[in-house]
Structures are given as structure tokens and as C-alpha cells.
Design a protein that fits this description.
By secondary structure, the chain is of the alpha/beta class. The protein contains seven helices and five strands.
Length: 261
């Protein structure tokens, strides 16, 4: 498999380089193995900020309510318990190199302007991990970015999320100064999507034929809105990972699961 690089442009179609990075991620996740956990269905937690679906449905338009059963592909059984979502999901860094202080800020800002901004989710901490620390523990290494488990199953797992700040072995074009921050941003938004329970959009059974990316990792267990080509979780997005910007349906889905701020 030819290794590629991200070209972070707000294009209307995937460039050759953008297609290569998707193949790169695809190849790495298959060969290195994403150890996603699938709890049994009876472990699925309550839905919404309070578990009161009638209250939540009262915030939706008739059209949204009609669509709520048919898209975004979360694993509801991996939803973080609501006390974590509202009081804060702890995040820490296994590798706290001072040289990557700026990169860590890019990640934190990307999460704040995406999943946090559009839902009741909060992420706290963001300091160096200590032994036995719960939450999302991020390792930094020059390999493919990934999350070992979907949603709450990553809680407390050492190096449960891997991010890349050097882009030597993986996607070397991202090492260019004019591309690095944008690469880091959109990868962080995508991986945190996994960490809160979202599977890849192309894993859905209603994925259209024009999306040729093969399913990978764990499938979700609930479709909340129509298939979303613009999702940050969709490798068939015509704009690479949505440039880290949640689609309207991403927002609807995360609000359905974790509530609105």
C-alpha cells in the first residue's frame, strides 16, 4: 500500500493526495488492529442528557424527529455515563514532551470547537497522566492515529488514543508548517469522535455504492439520522474529514446522545 499524505484544503472533491491518506489510515487500522470492544445490548445506557426521551424530543422539529432513527452511527452501548459527560471526561497525555505544547493546544482547541461546543460534553484535565488515571489517555508517536476502543470502553486504557505530531512515518506531508496544525485538528476531531462512541460512517448498511471505502473497526448499533457524507467520521466525505468541522447531522447525533449544553 503506498503511503500518502493529507492535503488539508476545503476542496469539493478528494485530491489524489487526500485519497492516499484515507488508504493509509485504512491500511494501518486493518494491519495494526483496532481493538474495539462491543458490549452486549443490555449494557446500553439511557439516551440523552437525562434519559427523558420525551423531554429531548420536545427540542426537535418534526423533520428532525422523523429522521432521528436513521443515521449517525454511534455504539450506544459505549456511551459514556451521563455523570462523566456533564462533570467532565478526563483527558491526559502519556507523553508530555514540552516540544509538543503547541500541538497539545491544537488538539484541545479542536475538541472544544467541535464536540464540546455543540453538546453537553466537557473534557477536563489535559495534563500529564499519572498511574491509574481514568479517562482518555493519549499517547503520542509517529504511527497511525487511532483509538483502541469505542466510547467508555477506552476509559483508563493506557495509550487508549494515539495521536501523531511529527508525521515522519505516517503522512509526512502533514509535517509541512502550513499543513501541520490543520492535519492535527481534523485527526483529533475524528479520533475523539471514536472516543465518545462514534463508529465510521461508511460502516453503515445504508452506505451508498459511490462510497467505496470498506467498513472497518466496530460497527455502531444505532442509526440516528440519514447517511451523512459530510460527517467527520466518514472517509467518503468529499472534504477530508470535514476539515474537523462537525456536520449538521454530527451535531444532531451528539446532542441526541449527550444532550445540548
Amino acid at each position: 500500500m503506498t503511503r500518502g499524505a493529507i492535503l488539508c484544503l476545503a476542496a469539493t472533491s478528494l485530491s489524489a493526495q487526500e485519497s492516499k491518506i484515507l488508504n493509509d489510515i485504512d491500511w494501518n487500522e486493518k494491519t495494526e488492529g483496532s481493538l474495539f470492544s462491543v458490549p452486549s445490548g443490555n449494557e446500553a445506557p439511557e439516551i440523552g442528557a437525562s434519559g427523558d426521551t420525551e423531554l429531548f424530543y420536545g427540542t426537535l422539529t418534526a423533520e428532525q424527529e422523523a429522521n432521528i432513527v436513521d443515521k449517525a452511527f454511534p455504539l450506544m452501548a459505549a456511551k459514556w455515563p451521563q455523570n462523566y459527560a456533564t462533570e467532565g471526561i478526563f483527558v491526559c497525555w502519556e507523553d508530555f514532551d514540552e516540544a509538543h505544547e503547541h500541538d497539545r493546544k491544537v488538539v484541545r482547541d479542536a475538541v472544544a470547537q467541535s464536540w464540546e461546543k455543540h453538546s453537553a460534553l466537557t473534557f477536563i484535565g489535559w495534563d500529564e497522566c499519572v498511574d491509574g488515571q481514568e479517562g482518555i489517555r493519549i499517547g503520542v508517536e509517529d504511527s497511525n492515529p487511532r483509538v483502541r476502543y469505542l466510547g467508555k470502553k477506552v476509559n483508563g486504557v493506557p495509550r487508549g488514543m494515539i495521536l501523531n505530531f511529527t508525521y515522519g512515518f505516517f503522512s509526512p506531508t502533514c509535517a509541512q508548517e502550513d499543513l501541520k496544525d490543520q492535519c492535527t485538528k481534523m485527526i483529533a476531531v475524528h479520533e475523539f469522535g471514536h472516543a465518545i462512541g462514534f463508529a465510521h460512517e461508511q460502516n453503515r448498511h445504508d452506505t451508498p455504492e459511490e462510497c467505496t471505502k470498506k467498513p472497518q473497526g466496530t460497527k455502531g448499533d444505532t442509526m440516528l439520522t440519514p447517511w451523512d457524507k459530510d460527517s467527520v467520521m466518514n472517509y467518503c466525505n468529499p472534504v477530508q474529514m470535514g476539515n474537523g468541522k462537525l456536520s449538521e447531522l454530527d451535531i444532531l447525533a451528539v446532542q441526541y446522545i449527550y444532550g445540548k449544553d
